[in-house]
Amino acid sequence: MVNAARPSRADYYKVLADTLPANALVVTSLGNASYLWAAMHHAPENFYIEDAMGLALPLALGLAIAQPERPVIVVEGDGAVLMHLGALVTVGAVAPDNLTVLLIQNGVHAASGGQALTNAALDLAELARSTGIARATNVATPQAFASAIGSAPAGRGAQVLVLSTEPDVEVVRPPIALDPVLTKHRFMAAIGAPRYVPTMFGGGRLVSE
Amino acid sequence: MAKPAAQPPGAHRPSAILDTLKRLGFGAAIAVPDGWLGEILVRIEQEPTIRLVRATHEEEALAVACGTRLGGLRTAMFVQNAGVLSMGAGMVSLAQRYQFPLLMLVSYRGTLEDPVFYHAPKGRVTEPVFKGFGLAYARTDRNRPIGVQVEEAATFAEEASCPFALLLSREDVQW
Questions:
Q1: What is the ipTM of this complex?
Q2: What is the model's pTM?
Q3: Of A43, A104, A150, B24, which residue is 20 to 30 A from B127 by alpha carbon distance?
């Protein structure tokens, strides 16, 4: 829920950086979700999405399925999740234990200059619970976030933390080039994803090194 | 690499699609329902080596597929052609921009062989829209075994680092 005095995205990101498991994979949505995370905690295991609004959550779901031994954390905005609410339903149905969804609830479309949301007052945690995601909580302070993200018991499906956040409409300048193909290859190399080995006449395979 | 065994004339084409996906090591299939796809999805769900995810919308399915491929699983999608029409933004801004190799197995509704008349408008615009997206695609040839066509499409996707849509007839995919 959006409350009166809200922490900044950076306040939550500092907690995330301090508590991030060493083997975690992080997917960030468009705009400052990616730019600020790159500025504060750039790592090869970050997958930065530019544009493709609303698709960070389903992409992270796929990643969590493919990498079940690694924690996957996705940062998605309230406006973005409203664009593809069905993805929340799919997360509830698939119930991956290794997926943590951080929903930045700032009540606006921050990446497009702070335009109003269709509904800024939705209880997104309640919405998540209704899809079958039992571990869904509204969070209003960085301290509560630290407590929640550090105490998640395993084996109960995805966790959703709705972070009440002050809008940040001023665009952060990312410290690195967010070239999409470079981002993808850097990420896949970091996790040791198998590479495609072609053959002359078809029948190529993905092969682990 | 041994060539796959030639399929006999009259071979069950949906079975050949599934066998080809298994032989090529596909680890994930992301799907949105269509009447022609229903039974093959049930069969995939029974396969221990392929994880089936049933998404709520085709653009969401596309993003899930990008995620499984990013995580190292060779990934196929099963969607209706209308679903590809509705995933345009994700197609260009995610799958193509990040160059994800995805095999898209697409039921081609609204063709002459489709008895459901309301699919006709979608059939009429499918290929022009695919061309507009810059989406590589092919229609299956009913005179050739389907398995080799699936393999060609999968190979194209990987070697060109892009999604490739194979437009399937009812005979190809309806179990």
A1: 0.95
A2: 0.95
A3: B24
